[in-house]
Specification:
- Helix content is 19%, strand content 22%.
- The strands form three sheets. Strands 1, 2, 3, 4, 6, 11, 13 and 14 form an eight-stranded antiparallel β-sheet that branches. Strands 5-12-7-10 form a four-stranded antiparallel β-sheet, covered by helices on one side.
- The chain has five helices and 14 strands.
- A hairpin with a 2-residue loop joins strand 8 and strand 9.
- It is an alpha+beta fold.
- It has a single domain, classed as Sandwich (Jelly Rolls), CATH 2.60.120.620.
- The protein is globular, with a radius of gyration of 18 Å.
- The structure holds 2-oxoglutaric acid.
- 2-oxoglutaric acid binds next to strand 12 and strand 13.
């Protein structure tokens, strides 16, 4: 291992997640925060999701219905590494990538990334789910790296996780034939009772196993909460569903080498439905801001 110590490695595989402070350098963090500030300013001029479009033609920036020029509610930036040097540099070469390689490497590739923002007053919340149900692969050596762009505490909509839940089962995100993007209400109630908050300073990262059950509540404070979320897989984990957020960098090797073989460890896998809108927030029942008709 290059970056993590044995105790951290063991904690990740035992609990399904690991918090690490100072996961990026101060200049990297400052560059990410400056980009965000610019995008929030830009969003004031828009009253519906806006571009530059993603490679599958959806708007890159998405806002909640509460968005206004005076009080922006920009909540999602799809694949910021496709449009920003600062975000691409961190996705490709921050300490976080070395940590991921320690966990599932040596050969690691990139899948997709996004920013989830909860500005002060935003109503955005994330229903409980496991990422694997959105992005199934031939095996589950997949890590979601959630980098804190702000100081995050119990009041500004922190991520909450169910320790140990990565050991299974993978819960359905369907209600009958309808893909809801969220586990059933009773499973969410049980998850909430077992959840713990992931809090820390800007620059910390939560490394999360793809099968860990997690969600997050709305921001009840005046402080904004931003996460830069990058998904990495072992090079021999091959997607078995279309990427919900295709990127020009999808499949790019970030550590080690390309795989010659796909490794199969999964049995039956429920296939997700892909979103057609700017973000999965609409799938979980939170509409985007739309221009007045
Ligand atoms: O933004 C959050 O609080 C959680 C993000 C998340 O669960 C996800 O993107 O899978």
């Amino acid at each position: 291992m290059k970056t993590l110590i044995r105790e951290q490695y063991d904690a990740f595989w035992r609990d399904g997640y690991l918090m690490v402070d100072d996961a990026v350098t101060p200049p990297q963090l400052a560059a990410l925060q400056a980009e965000i500030a610019g995008w929030v300013e830009e969003s004031r001029a828009h009253d519906k999701p806006f571009g530059p479009p993603t490679i599958d033609g959806r708007p890159r920036f998405d806002m909640g219905t509460e968005h206004s020029a005076e009080k922006p509610a920009l909540r999602r930036i799809n694949n910021p590494s496709d449009i920003s040097d600062a975000y691409r540099d961190v996705m490709l070469d921050a300490r976080t990538v070395d940590m991921v390689a320690d966990l599932i490497g040596p050969d690691v590739k990139f899948h997709h990334c996004k920013i989830n923002l909860k500005l002060s007053g935003a109503r955005t919340e994330v229903s409980y789910h496991q990422d694997f149900a959105y992005t199934p692969h031939t095996n589950d050596d997949i890590v979601t790296a959630l980098l804190f762009l702000d100081d995050i505490d119990g009041d500004n909509g922190c991520l909450t996780v169910v320790p140990g839940s990565h050991k299974g089962p993978v819960l359905s995100l369907f209600d009958g034939e309808r893909f809801t993007g969220a586990v059933a209400a009773d499973a969410e109630t049980q998850a909430l009772a077992r959840s713990i908050p992931c809090v820390g300073k800007a620059g910390a990262v939560c490394l999360m196993h793809t099968k860990l059950l997690h969600g997050s509540a709305a921001n009840r404070s005046d402080a904004s909460r931003g996460l830069y979320i990058c998904v990495y897989t072992a090079a021999d984990a091959v997607p078995i569903a279309r990427n919900p957020m295709p990127s020009v960098n999808e499949g790019r090797i970030v550590r080690g080498q390309e795989a010659r073989f796909a490794r199969l460890s999964e049995g039956l896998v429920e296939l997700p439905k892909q979103p057609k809108t700017a973000s999965f927030f609409t799938v979980i029942g939170q509409e985007s801001k739309q221009a007045a008709q």
